[in-house]
Amino acid sequence: MYWEKELELLERKDLEHLQVERLNKTLRQAGNSPCYGQMPEISRFIRSGMTSIEQIRELPFTAKEDLRRDFPWGFLATDKKDVVRLHSSSGTTGNPVAVYHNRHDLNSWANLMARSLFTAGVRDTDVFQNICGYGLFTGGLGFQYGVEKLGCLSIPAGAGNSPRQIKLMRDFGTTVAHAIPSYLGRLFDVFREEGLDPRKDTQLHTLVIGAEPHTEEHRRRIEEMFGVKAYNSFGLSEMNGPGVAFECIEQNGLHVWEDAYVLEVIDPVTLQPVADGEVGELVMTTLDRQAMPVIRYRTRDLTRILPGPCPCGRTHRRIDRISGRSDDMFIIKGCNVFPMQIEGVLMKLPEVGDDYRITLETIDDQDEMIIEVEVKKEWFKGDLAFLDKLQRHITHLIRDEVLVRPRIKLVEPSSIPKAEGKAVRVHDHRQKG
Ligand code: ADP
Ligand code: ZN
Description:
This protein is an alpha/beta fold. The protein has 2 domains: 1-327, Rossmann fold (3-Layer(aba) Sandwich); 330-429, GMP Synthetase, Chain A, domain 3. 33% of the residues lie in helices and 24% in strands. The protein has helices at 5-8, 12-30, 34-37, 40-48, 64-69, 103-119, 138-150, 162-172, 181-193, 198-201, 216-226, 339-346, 377-380, 384-402, and strands at 85-88, 98-101, 127-130, 153-155, 176-179, 206-210, 229-236, 241-247, 254-256, 261-266, 280-286, 297-303, 305-306, 318-319, 324-325, 330-332, 335-337, 352-363, 366-375, 407-411, 426-429. A 9-stranded mixed sheet has the order 4-3-5-6-7-8-9-14-13, sandwiched between helices. A hairpin with a 2-residue loop joins β16 (330-332) and β17 (335-337). α2 packs across α4 (40-48), α6 (103-119) crosses α7 and α8 (162-172) packs across α9. The longest helix is centred in the first third of the chain and has 19 residues, at 12-30. It is globular, with a radius of gyration of 22 Å. The structure holds adenosine-5'-diphosphate and zinc ion. Zinc ion binds at residues 248, 250, 255, 310, 312, 314.
């Protein structure tokens, strides 16, 4: 049932005790880095020691800008010669930052990944195909070492080349695959083009999906298309990468591994903690990293702590799926809009295909939100009256959801160009000022 029973089932008070112990160790280690070393609050706690986990609130936050400003070595807390690998975030929102690992860190990360996969029901008898970029992106090597530690047969397939992915799956009897959700619609289309049905023509039973925001509706679609269970995997480079929070087989939120991370959810304006169940910004602190501890990192990801125990028995708290990044939000005609609100509407409609694109444009001095929506092949053919009705229906639903009337353009399946890595949902071409 469990990969590390003694840690996964720890009583809350023992878990918090372990956190305090590890946090003190982390602070001492962080104090070796040029940036944390000069922060008075950190020096104070290195001297006095923390006695409760709530005291973490007295420490300063670390923002992505801090990591960028002191790039490349400002947060390195160990001798360069002990560093054995670096990763770098994909730079979705600007310049990348670098994160360093020593041997201890890599081992601890692989262990968290093995635990995460086990939690989602993956076993050493599985054949695991990792459909994602290797290299600086953490989804490649992060999963690779976890899968090997768990003992599956791993197929480090890398990203793209769908026909090859399908061949690998069929040749080696892949049972579990990991991919970003926005790629899976494309992969499914290629199955269909080849006259294959992943439900019948593969042995897949599980998909692990993550690295980008997606809705519950999107997950259900993926499960339906492939005839599998799809588990949500959350992580970010600054906290290693994947293996920070993962769904268990209950699929009711993601357990955050609290022996390795301190979890906080704050109000991004007041910077104070929000109550359990309330949405705020996720803030994370590493507890088992040596080369580069990161303290109170403001992830900009929006989520909430789900109150109550999980039937699986793990005591590590659960967060809800990420509803977006605070910097994903755009304002149009005075309304705040998150792309996932739009995805939530679209993915509920059976006629809608797997992709959409939001473009913001200034037309006749007015800001407009144009949404191209792929329609499934069987619905796209012919009947203009039907498409007209569908277009009006989507317009109303989205207007009701986000309070702005969009211009909906229905487009052919697979016609929206795909991003190389993570999906880019919003293109803002508005005239500024
Ligand atoms: P970048 O910040 O450049 O995209 P990373 O590759 O480190 O670099 O990506 C981490 C980010 O990806 C997270 O902060 C989050 O916004 C997003 N992310 C990762 N996993 C998920 C997930 N399961 N659901 C939603 N968003 C996710
Ligand atoms: Zn659980």
